[in-house]
Amino acid sequence: MGRRKSHNPTTIGDQSLNQQQQPAKIRFKDDDDDGGGGQEDATGSSNLDEVMCDPDESTAVADMTVDASTCEANDSFPDDGDDNQTSADYYFDSYSHFGIHEEMLKDIVRTKTYQNVIYQNKFLFKNKVVLDVGAGTGILSLFCAKAGAQHVYAVECSHMADTAKEIVESNGFSNVITVLKGKIEEIDLPVAKVDIIISEWMGYFLLFENMLNTVLYARDKWLVNDGVVLPDKASLYLTAIEDAEYKEDKIDFWNNVYGFDMSCIKKQAMMEPLVDTVDQNQLVTQCQLLKTMDISKMTPGDASFTASFKLVAERDDYIHALVAYFDVSFTKCHKLTGFSTGPRSRATHWKQTVLYLEDVLTICEGEALVGSMTVAPNKKNPRDVDIKVKYSLNGRRCMVSRIQYYKMR
Is the pTM of this model over 0.90? Predict the structure, then answer.
């Protein structure tokens, strides 16, 4: 998995929230239980109903027809061959370093939403036993303890667990928070059941790193029958963008590298999704809901799926890439609360996931890019994600049908 170099400011305070035509309000409140700060609203789903773009920034492309016979017909993912380099090799070790925790803690949308969920819904936590899955520095456990939890078990597999113990002691919560170092699947809790499971399990593209299955394991083993999982809903969305400038810099770069032909790398570059903040002015189509997951009820197999999409163009433009993002919701709160990682919402450290297309699609307003996306954990390395996209466009100026594969690692 690659990360695009940032070409747009990502300062959270300078980004607007999507507040247009949404079915339910999700609240960001910058004040905690001690009072203070202002209040901002975000929306419950992140449908992109209004898109603006400067057509002069587009790149002209001739009409094209791609022969669908060149596409593979089966639904299987290609063999990884001898490529054994994987995120699983460094997953837990990476969370031992403070830098990644600093980035997450400074993500105001992420951390403040969790804080507000806990502090503004103390009726959920008062005198309850809480399990914090993937506790990191222990920030969520500290929030829960302060909100009146009877006891919090903070489970962290990386070496950060040792630091979390120091943090808990420094803040005087050792009698309420117990930090346990180890994998959820291997540890023994001192209690038979817990009332609440809280976790910030979401990865890039929602499912990268596959921590969701760990939460589901904990739910099935320790959560009481009427227990609460926070967050309890997550939705994955898809849209399409014009991105000629960066696609040229990222993909076509390999055609001529200081006078040498390295185009053999282009295929690998195309298969590697990129994580970056997408400017909302790049959006060409409406968005499409691909999948909603109910964390309180789903099974691990539900994270593997095939979903169809129909992306309708809102203007005449060119499509260079698909963009995926996700929303999460806390529906057990007194008021529906959550956040979106979409291009029209306040920036987060998850940014968005960009999947470049081999074709440059010439699309006219009202035409639809249709297809399906198949998502599954990599068979060899389940923390990695395999993505298959079938897409076709039967437009006035462009006819395309193709299958592409991507690997997030």
Answer: no
Beta-carbon contacts of residue 128 (< 8 Å; ≥ 6 apart): 149, 150, 195, 196
**What are the CA-CA distances from residue 28 to residues 40, 293, 300 (Å)?**
5, 22, 30
Distance between CA atoms of residues 59 and 173, nearest Å: 58
Q: What are phi and psi of 99, to 5 degrees?
A: -60, -45
At 146, list the tokens: 């302060």
Question: Residue 339 CA to chain centroid, in angstroms?
Answer: 11
3-state secondary structure 28-93: EECCECCECCCEEEEECCCCCCCCCCCHHHCCCCCCEECCHHHCCCCCCCCCCCCCCCCHHHCHHH
Nearest in space to 160 (alpha carbons), one of 188, 130, 135, 187: 135
User: Which residues carry out catalysis?
Assistant: 200, 209
Per-residue pLDDT of the chain (409 residues; tens, 9 = 90+): 444 444 443 333 333 333 333 334 344 444 444 443 333 343 333 333 333 333 333 333 334 334 433 434 455 666 655 455 445 444 445 455 678 889 988 999 999 999 999 999 999 999 999 999 999 999 999 999 999 999 999 999 999 999 999 999 999 999 999 999 999 999 999 999 999 999 999 999 999 988 999 999 999 999 999 999 999 999 999 999 999 998 988 888 999 999 999 999 988 899 999 999 999 999 999 999 999 999 999 999 999 999 999 999 999 999 999 999 999 999 999 999 999 999 999 999 999 999 999 999 999 999 999 999 999 999 999 889 999 999 999 999 999 999 999 999 8
Tokens of 9: 């400011």
7 within 8 A of 250, measured Cβ to Cβ: no
Q: How, if at all, do strands 233-241 and 288-294 pair? A: antiparallel
What gap in Å lies between CA 321 and CA 355, rounded to an integer? 5
SS3 311: strand
